[in-house]
Structures are given as C-alpha cells and as structure tokens.
Amino acid sequence: MSATEKLLARIRDLQDELEEEFARRRDAFHYGVENGRVVFEAEVRRRHREMRVRLVTFLRRTRPMTVLTAPLVYSLIVPFVLVDLFVTVYQAVCFPVYGIDKVRRADFIRVDRHHLAYLNALQKLNCVYCGYCNGLIGYVQEIAGRTEAFWCPVKHAARIGAHHAYYAQFVDYGDAEGFAEGLATARRRITRPGLSGINSRDCDTLPD
C-alpha cells in the first residue's frame, strides 16, 4: 500500500469515527430517523416549541443591511436550479456511455432542518434554501470529480484550496511516464467493467 493509499485509509477511518460521534449526538438529543423523516420525542418537541423565537421578534432584531442583501441571496436560486438541471441531464446522458455509476442526489441534498420546532418560519425557509444549495454543490462536485477522474486525472502544479475525493489518487503533475497507467487506473476505480467503450486515446481528442 502506497503512502497516499495509507493516508486515504486513515481519512476514511476518521470519517467513520465522525459518523459514530454524530450517532452518539443523535441519541443525546433524543431523536431518530424513521423512513427518512426526523422524529423527536414528544417532550423534546414541546421544549423546542417553547424556545422558538417568534417571527415578529426575529425580524425586529435583524439588521437593516441584512434585509437589504436578502434579495441578492435568494436570487441565486435561479442559477442553482439551472446548474442542478443541466448537471443532472449531463450525467444521465454521458455517464452510462462512460460506464460511470451515476451520483444519487439524495446522498448529497438533504432538506430536513425545517422539521426543527425551535425554528420560526423564516429560519426554516433559510434552512431549506441552504440545505438545497450546499447539498447541490456537493452533488455537482462529485459528478465533476468522477468526470475529471475519467478524462484527466492529473494533479495541479500548485496546491489548491479544496479538492474532491478522487484527486489524491491522480497522477503527479509532470509524470509523463506514469500518465497512461494512471489514467487507466483512475478509470478502473470509477467505472463498471465492460461498460465503457472509451479508451485512453480519447483523452487526445476530447477536452479535459
């Protein structure tokens, strides 16, 4: 096992530990998930409703500049929905051709915080908005990551601020001798055997 593979295995172990901690926190706050829906104990919901800040009070405490910038924030829903539509159509058409498993939106876009009884109507709306948009970014990044792993799995020359799950196993920048093998390896990781009719030569004819 290479040093990179060991680091990735350690990262996966830490992610599993983090999920275990999240599960313990769920128990601490007395809720569970049944058929995809969050369920709180009755007494907990009652206390949550008592802690809710009324909408009028919430708006009265809001800074005027925050109100003025709100239309700009909400207007971003238009490009987000368009990106969602185009990227979903893209993977539906192209991924079967490449032999890549399609990304499930439900694994990334979770809209569930509006079930919290201690949030008022506006806070719930904001949580729905943020849950969708941030989940969509993760969904798009996963699709883009699988696409990059298929067509051009090469690391950048300089450090980048954030990268998707496949980037660490890309071919090193400048490794001409290892590129062909690295490309084949990257494709094997994300494709189903026998379903891709595209070979390594196609990287010379299609944009990365």
Explain how this protein is built.
With 208 residues, this protein is mainly alpha-helical. It is 59% helix and 4% strand. Strand 1 (31-34) and strand 2 (37-40) form a beta hairpin. The longest helix is centred in the middle third of the chain and has 31 residues, at 121-151. The two termini are 29 Å apart. The relative contact order is 0.09. Mean pLDDT is 85; it is low at 203-208.
Task: Give a brief rundown of this model.
The chain has about 210 residues and is mostly helical. The chain has helices at about 5-30, 40-50, 55-60, 65-75, 75-100, 120-150, 175-190; strands at about 30-35, 35-40. Strand 1 (about 30-35) and strand 2 form a beta hairpin.
Q: Quick one: overall form?
A: elongated
Note the run of SSEs as H and E.
HEEHHHHHH
Unreliable residue runs:
203-208
> Number of DSSP strands?
2
Helical content (DSSP H or I, runs of 4+): 55-70%
Proportion of residues in extended strands: under 5%
Record keyword descriptors for this entry.
disordered C terminus; 208 residues; 4% strand; elongated; mainly alpha; two-stranded antiparallel sheet
Write the layout of secondary structure elements.
Elements: H1 3-28, E1 31-34, E2 37-40, H2 42-51, H3 55-61, H4 64-75, H5 77-98, H6 121-151, H7 176-190
